Amino acid sequence: MEETKAVRPLSVCVFCGASPGDDPVYLEIAYQVGEMLGRRRHRLVYGAGGTGVMGAVARGAAEHGAPITGVIPSFLREREMSVEAPAQEMVLTKDLFERKQRMIGMADGFIVLPGGFGTLDELLEVVSMRALGVCAQPIVLVNPGSFWNPFVDLLKHLVKRGFAPSGDSFVLADGPLDAVRHLEQRNA
Ligand SMILES: C/C(=C\CNc1ncnc2c1ncn2[C@@H]1O[C@H](COP(=O)(O)O)[C@@H](O)[C@H]1O)CO
Asked: Does the keyword Glycoprotein apply (predicted)?
């Protein structure tokens, strides 16, 4: 993998699942996203957990020198950090809503990996904010195993039926390096 130093270190918010999913490729790609952030001197901002896809991205980042900020509601701390999470700056929030706001507020851009309800909630929040023009940060979906294809189809359906604006609120990346480069270019 390439080891180019980025021009400006970014705070990259990664939304992804607390579970591993059904395909090891999700964890492999998540680890590589974390690795790429470390190699290119960016900060990982994420949901603080040590489990599933979240744990994999954090381990990739930590093992490649990325500073990490984990944002988590107090009530989830025990459940999602029971599996050892790497050392990180911790931000405790009162609930999930505040967590999302804090993560969005810190981010220069978003990378979205496979996940469940929480990830979908976070993704839809930033996609709708961009559609309303109240969020300028770029959003990149990383798509291992074509995971996001049904989501992309659903959005096309909403546009076709006249319920959502056309126009690209996010891009699909070819892989971890492509995703990080996109955020760098949009922040140049
Ligand atoms: C319950 C509320 C909103 C909708 N649900 C969620 N909103 C935000 N974060 C959530 C929600 N459900 C789970 N989470 C957390 O997100 C992370 C990823 O979860 P995933 O389901 O594995 O993708 C994880 O930390 C979840 O605990 C009220 O605002």
From this structure: no
- Assign 138 to helix, strand or coil: coil
All domains of the chain in start order, with CATH = 18-186 (3.40.50.450)
User: ipTM for the complex?
Assistant: 0.91
User: What single letter denotes the amino acid at residue 55?
Assistant: G
According to DSSP, the β-strands at 11-15 and 43-46 are: parallel
Task: Give the closest residue to 47 by CA, choosing from 17, 70, 20, 18.
Answer: 70
Per the CB < 8 A criterion, the answer to whether 57 and 30 are in contact is yes
- Over 90: is that where the pLDDT of 168 sits? no
User: Cα separations (Å) of 186 from 22, 40, 108, 170?
Assistant: 33, 15, 9, 12
Is residue 83's pLDDT more than 80?
Answer: no
Q: Could you read off the pLDDT of 129-143 as tens digits, one per residue? A: 998 989 899 999 999
In the reported structure, the alpha carbon of residue 188 is separated from the centroid of ligand 1 by a whole-number distance in angstroms of 31
Q: For atom 15 of ligand 1, which residue has the closest CA?
A: 118
- List residues bridging with 141 in a β-sheet: 112, 172
| pLDDT of the residue at 140 | 98
Query: Residue 187: what residue type?
Result: N
* Best mutation site among 22, 80, 96 for ligand 1 pocket (most ligand atoms within 8 Å of CB): 96
